[in-house]
Write a structure and sequence with these properties.
By secondary structure, this protein is of the alpha/beta class. It contains eight helices and seven strands; from the N terminus they run E-H-E-H-E-H-E-H-E-H-E-H-H-E-H. Strands 3-2-1-4-5-6-7 form a seven-stranded parallel β-sheet, with helices on both faces.
Length: 263
């Protein structure tokens, strides 16, 4: 297991799904993780699928979870998040851009001309634009230290058709954005890359499969924390800069880094 004790990470969209799994993977390696999202709960114990529930899970895994409510459509809230990280930690080692608007299941597989044009703004606003804005506010912390890792979460849709035109275009652009960010960040010692999980057993995927909207073999699907262990392995790789600008599959990196599924 990688050792990320003393490291500070931000994972956006971490109340559920892949985001929560990534936060868990970093926490079990000892990192302090700021988890963002809009769903909150102040019950004890907190309701599931909230940032407070994720933060509690991270503590149980041996890391530290700090929930911060952020609407990634609002630049001021994103800026405030990174200012808080700077004030409380004085550093940022890992940024994982994951908050991404997934279209309603009813849109899956429907041609783009039958869907509201507003779907483009929802998908590429919270997703693609949100990644850009968060990275823009986070990068100065990393550049100042001459190190850091930015992971832009993509998907299989970055390389082939999946879900729909707006979703796939946004994911492909996420990968291009990582490549261009990498060119600008490399002189400052900061790595930027895109990560493609496979089919992941998120709440949404399980529901879509049960309704016949996705034709996937869940027996071969990845757990969300498997993706998190991939990010942890990247964060501890002293030669991660060799991957800057690339787009990598989680299964591909599992073979290289030898991290395992949850048992």
């Amino acid at each position: 297991m990688a050792d990320l004790s003393g490291k500070v990470a931000v994972v956006t969209g971490a109340s559920r799904g892949v985001g929560r799994g990534i936060a868990e993977g970093l926490a079990e390696a000892g990192a302090t993780v700021y988890v963002t999202g809009r769903s909150e709960s102040f019950d004890d114990p907190p309701a599931e699928r909230t940032i407070q529930a994720t933060a509690r899970a991270l503590e149980q895994l041996g890391g530290r979870g700090i929930p911060v409510r952020v609407d990634h459509r609002r630049d001021a809230e994103v800026r405030a998040l990174l200012r808080r990280v700077r004030h409380e930690q004085g550093r940022l080692d890992v940024l994982v851009n994951n908050a991404y608007h997934v279209p309603d299941l009813a849109t899956f597989g429907r041609p783009f001309w039958e869907l509201p044009v507003s779907l483009w703004d929802e998908v590429c606003g919270v997703g693609l634009r949100g990644y850009y804005v968060t990275a823009a506010f986070a990068a100065p912390l990393m550049v100042a230290e001459g190190r850091g890792l930015i992971v832009n979460v993509s998907s299989m849709a970055g390389g082939r058709y999946a879900v729909g035109t707006a979703y796939g275009t946004g994911k492909a652009a996420v990968e291009r954005m990582a490549r261009d960010m990498a060119l600008e960040l490399e002189p400052h010692g900061v790595t930027a890359l895109a990560l493609r999980p496979g089919v992941v057993k998120t709440e949404l995927v399980l529901e879509a499969a049960s309704r016949g909207l996705l034709d996937v073999d869940l027996r071969q699907a990845q757990s969300p924390r498997f993706v998190g262990r991939c990010v942890a392995a990247l964060a501890m790789d002293p030669d991660v800069m060799e991957k800057t600008g690339g787009a990598f599959g989680v299964a591909e990196l599992a073979g290289e880094y030898r991290f395992s599924e949850i048992g």
